[in-house]
Q: What sequence folds into this?
């Protein structure tokens, strides 16, 4: 992954807004989820890591009631008035930023007009949360520009609501949380009900392992996928299970001891609920395995997670299944699974560093031969979360 440098971003800002100087640059990383898929909106457990690819936004207040946006990646601009924030059909990327302004207004803050320039290096449509990276960077930048004192978790909640209520995607809180609060060389064990979290060391380098991420090249837009349908199905399962398990609020409250009742639900609700219950258990087992240094067991849990996502939650596709199959054919690979919401996007694999060249050659050649698609293969590091640079640091 090519390093994203702020130099071009600042040059573009000064060229487009010559009467203004960028007051701050915010960075929000993307994320890969190691374990815990489709558990976040069920009040469950997730285990993501922030990655060393993300979104940068340079910005300054402009003294008006107008916001001017420019995307380097799309070579596209969008402007809107703060009193008339409406979704854009022409520039869908702008809606994630508009949603953040809108959410600040809903909370009683009074954002001012601003000039913003955006660039990113997260592969889009791949399930690496470029949208959350954009929302988190925007929320952190606006709070900085206005000197608003909000803690990190407040900004995470705001960013999630921007996507839920303005963009219209019923995402859980994991993506924004990982982008804001990720730590270098750690993954984040997050309880999505209480928002308690723990940074768990990832002993990958010392064990000679890498997290390889393979982009299937199959793009999926969450808003147009069956993501919202899966969420509704989980809620329907809870309603039916509540008749047998009084007091449950979400599938988080259904344990392995209740799987016999889950299996009695009508399909597809039984399958959806079974995935969530077993996936929550896999996260807890995975965290324990890492703390014990048992990376082999962690790899087996990745494989089991993919099987559940494929068969019970039915959010995989033939291309993702093929990538997992090809990864596991490479000697030394500990485990592989789809990551993200599914219907395309990426897989992850735990690969020995020494096997990365063989992994890339085998997966790339066989996948292209059998699908006609050339996959992108990355190796990401567990990276720090969102940050902002302001003031004198931008003058050079």
A:
């Amino acid at each position: 992954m090519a390093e994203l440098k702020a130099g071009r971003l600042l040059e573009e800002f000064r060229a487009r807004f010559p009467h203004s100087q960028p007051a701050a640059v915010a960075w929000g990383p993307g994320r890969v989820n190691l374990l815990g898929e489709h558990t976040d909106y069920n009040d469950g457990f997730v285990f993501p890591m922030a990655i060393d690819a993300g979104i940068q936004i340079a910005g300054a207040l402009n003294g008006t009631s107008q916001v001017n946006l420019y995307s380097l990646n799309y070579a596209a601009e969008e402007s809107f008035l703060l009193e008339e924030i409406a979704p854009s059909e022409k520039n869908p990327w702008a809606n994630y930023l508009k949603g953040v302004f809108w959410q600040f207004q809903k909370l009683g803050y009074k954002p001012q007009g601003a000039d913003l320039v955006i660039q990113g290096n997260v592969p889009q449509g791949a399930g690496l949360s470029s949208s959350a990276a954009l929302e988190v960077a925007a929320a952190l930048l606006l709070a900085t520009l206005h000197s608003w004192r909000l803690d990190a978790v407040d900004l995470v909640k705001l960013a999630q609501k921007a996507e839920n209520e303005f963009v219209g995607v019923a995402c859980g809180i994991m993506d924004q949380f990982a982008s804001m609060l990720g730590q270098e060389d750690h993954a984040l064990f997050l309880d999505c009900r209480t928002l308690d979290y723990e940074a768990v060391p990832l002993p990958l380098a010392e064990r000679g392992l890498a997290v390889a991420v393979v982009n299937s090249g199959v793009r999926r837009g969450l808003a147009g996928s069956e993501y919202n349908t899966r969420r509704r199905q989980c809620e329907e399962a809870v309603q039916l299970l509540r008749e047998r398990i009084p007091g449950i609020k979400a599938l988080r409250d259904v344990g392995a001891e209740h799987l016999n009742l889950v299996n009695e639900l009508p399909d597809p609700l039984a399958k959806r609920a079974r995935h969530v219950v077993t996936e929550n258990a896999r996260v807890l087992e995975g965290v324990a395995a890492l703390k014990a240094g048992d990376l082999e067991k962690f790899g087996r849990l990745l494989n089991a997670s993919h099987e559940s996502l494929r068969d019970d939650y039915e959010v995989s596709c033939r291309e993702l299944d093929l990538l997992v199959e090809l990864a596991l054919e490479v000697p030394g690979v500990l485990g592989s699974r789809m990551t993200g919401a599914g219907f395309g996007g990426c897989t992850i694999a735990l690969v020995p560093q020494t096997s990365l060249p063989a992994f890339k050659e085998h997966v790339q050649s066989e996948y292209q031969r059998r699908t006609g698609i050339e996959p992108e293969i990355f190796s990401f590091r567990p990276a720090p979360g969102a940050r902002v640079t302001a003031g004198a640091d931008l003058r050079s």
Notes: Residues 210 and 227 are 29 Å apart (CA to CA). DSSP finds eleven helices and twelve strands in the chain. The two ends are 25 Å apart (CA to CA). The longest strand covers residues 45-61.
